[in-house]
Amino acid sequence: MKNLDNHVRKIDYILSHPDLRMIIWEATRNCNYHCLHCCIPRGDWDQGKELNTEQVKKIYSEIAQDFGPSKIHVALTGGEATLRSDLMEVIKFLVGLKFKGVSIDSNGFNYAKDLTLIDRLYEAGMRGPTIGVDGLREGYKKTRGMDFFDEIIKVLRYIVARYPDMNLTTFTVINNHNKSEIQELFELLAEIGIKYARVATVIPIGRAAQLPKEAYQLSVDEFHELLEWVGRKRQEYREKKFPMEIELSEDGWCGLKYETITKRDNYMFFCQTGLKVAGLLYDGKIAACPHLGRNLTVQGDALTQRFSDVWKNEFKMFRTSRDWLKTGKCQDCSVWEYCRGGPLHYRDEKATMFKCLYWEDIVPVLKKFGDDDAQYISRNAQKIGIVGAENEAHTYHMKRVLESYHAQVTIIDTLNFPKNITFSLLDDNPKYQGESIDNLAAFYVRMKFYSHPPYDLEEQRAAGKLDLKSWYADYMAERERQSLLTSWLRCAALRGKRIINPVESFDLHYLKSYQLALLRKYSIPVPHTLVTNNAEELKAFSKEIGSIVYKPVAGGASCKLMTEGDWKEERLALLQNAPVLFQEYVDGDNIRVYVLDGRIISTGIIHTKEIDYRGNEESIEKVKLPEAVNQMCVRAMKICGLRFTGIDLKRRSNGEYVLIECNPSPMFLGFQKATGDPIDAWLAEAILRKS
Fold it and tell me: ∠173-175-178 over CA atoms, to 5°?
């Protein structure tokens, strides 16, 4: 289930931090179809005003120069973009400018007439095309105004067979002409090998605005059936029971339930027009979105102004609280904070809303089928266990974060076991405080509390609470405690519980020298390391390596630099009591990298004057690492069997990176505060993710 509070924070951030990520280019208004749902009909197209090749090149060259193209996707639409006579030339040019992506939304007609067009576009670097498929033969013909279904299916088969990495998407607009064909259509698309498909209902703008509602609007029952069907198919996709990901297109706020089950895991609706998205109209006008009326959308003219200047100095109305949209149904709307006025293409040129998806389509479904947000939350709240302690900062913090996602959280208190807490293992069934854990779907293992000896030994000794005369009995009791906790958690995994991180990874953390050996085996650069209780081997190691540091073999104390005093015989004699981990001293920047499920989520330099930065941080500076280093960290995470980790790196003055350690339960609150990266939210979403 998604987090409404986090969604509101994201909206507020986006509104105050515009960052251009997509340009929707209305490459032409010319079209060879007559679709009933066309948002931008050809009628008011003035061919003489259409941007020519040189004008297109000049505009996009300036955009690439001013913004940096690697973060911007250019999506060609229309009309029908493939009707431009200079299509191949402009595609090659845009790809050559190294935009993040260049794609085309098309009806597919010209592809079917000349399959080599697909070959040439692929060779030019066009990726992520979208092709409209609005029903089977009869539904397609009535919706698209063309009897061309079989030819379009041939195009889809051609692209999937020859160019599986082209990332083809299909788009289906569901209406009264094709609604009965949808399930059969998507079985066909899955059989063809389509991997991603979007569905939507008709937006009453453009040509559709001239039609009676009966021609396209679904009934309450039909819309409910559509929403539930998309939700089922998305669940089947997550469970690998259906090969294609289907998503409801973003045409408005759908309420918490349908935002959760019909859309991508990390996405909730918010219209980002003028914030992350801009439009370039066929005649060079710079717009918030091509689908809006010109009086509302046009912000400048790329033929007389630089695109970046318009982006920086205009678009003001789209970058406010959007309270100016609080009219009509929005004025007293209970979901305003989550929607902020809906999709702007549901408004006329005076910004008056002519349709509200939530109140006109979603609310009738919720009322009829008795599934409002409160009921949905109550019925679907996940039950999560956090292994840690009530008074530990990260345990308490993650409990609150997970609860903000409507989860029910139980803290599995390992610190107060066995004195005040009971753990049991009945065959393979773990119990906590006498209750089975079968109702818990997932666990976040924050702290397992290894205690060899007790973590608060010195405090207990000073307070007179520790009887050292019974040390052997205490040690045996601690061994039994650890054995049950470890078996308990492993049996939880056997029963299919999702666990971040697996308990085995904590054992690997305790076996630091083995972790380093494992990483070294897979060519991850780690420091030269010696673990020994042999003073002569230590001397030889120092002679070979130079400056060295030392720390406990299993962790639990700070890392220190070997000094002259450490080489005295009385100090070296202490090695006879226990081995120590010695490492080459790697001078350079201290860098912490957080990795979650194969994705780098936060990186920063930790500035300190001490050898060991823990507890000695002076400041944390957010930093971007080379892609090769990011990939190395992801590999290290996988080698250690982790889903979430904080990796410590050292960066030498020559730019070389050395991995010091992968931590299976890293602290992150201070780091998050310094960098602004929402590590807690990303971690919560990973814990709640069912696939």
Answer: 90
